[in-house]
Design goal:
Elements lengths: L1 H17 L2 E3 L4 E4 L14 E5 L3 E5 L2 H5 L4 E6 L11 H17 L4 E5 L4 E6 L3 E6 L4 E6 L4 E3 L4 E7 L2 E6 L3 E2 L6 E2 L1 E7 L2 E9 L2
Antiparallel strand pairs: 1-2, 2-5, 3-4, 3-5, 6-7, 6-16, 7-8, 8-9, 10-11, 11-12, 12-15, 13-14, 15-16
Length: 201
């Protein structure tokens, strides 16, 4: 009886660790729902990628995907959890995070600095706004934009306190130096968030 219970437990554990990831390109593994609830204790370190350009080392892939904040991971430990803007970490945070967002259905994504903030739009579904390194997070139902072709602007008025303006003009992120196709201005209650973004598809 004990052997049968142990076998059942091991099967459940292994299934939980393997059934909720999806292999992608460049050895990136995308975490998908439902997230694993039970993981083995084996140590095969991976580098987990989260929103707000954060990375963290986890003992294995299952452990990474069990954290709901993790979007994807790559084999081997992170070189520097503080996000040194060099080599692999630069590639992981500045390029792959956009690819992972696209896999999640995000049609438009924007970022800004001081404090770090993030905007993600899924057409027909919702708007996601995060600021202060993820301390402030809010999701809003999708609304249709007002497009002004003469001024080359797209404006989403989510309510009286939240207005998102996308302007078709060159923009450079102050942190990474990356060039984007649109400048973003967000009136978010008593804040004004300014940054850059681009269409993912």
């Amino acid at each position: 009886m004990n052997i049968k219970l142990l076998s059942t437990f091991l099967f459940t554990t292994i299934t939980a660790c393997t059934a909720n990831t999806d292999k992608s390109v460049n050895n990136i593994v995308t975490c998908i729902d439902p997230r694993p609830q039970i993981c083995t204790m084996d140590y095969r370190p991976v580098c987990g990628l989260m929103n707000e350009n954060k990375i963290k080392t986890y003992s294995n892939g299952c452990g990474a995907c069990s954290d709901p904040k993790v979007l994807s991971y790559t084999d081997q430990a992170c070189q520097d959890d503080s996000l040194d803007k060099t080599s692999r970490n630069h590639e992981l945070t500045e390029k792959n995070v956009w690819h992972v967002a696209k896999l999640r259905g995000v049609s438009y994504r924007a970022i800004g600095q001081e404090p770090a903030w993030l905007l993600e739009i899924i057409n027909g579904e919702h708007f996601y706004i995060s600021s202060d390194y993820g301390e402030l997070v809010k999701t809003y139902p999708y609304v249709e934009p007002k497009v002004n072709t003469a001024q080359r602007t797209t404006v989403y008025q989510l309510n009286n306190d939240v207005i998102i303006k996308l302007e078709d003009k060159n923009c450079v992120d102050t942190m990474s130096g990356e060039a984007f196709s649109t400048q973003v201005n967000i009136k978010w209650h008593d804040r004004v968030l300014i940054g850059c973004g681009k269409t993912l598809f």
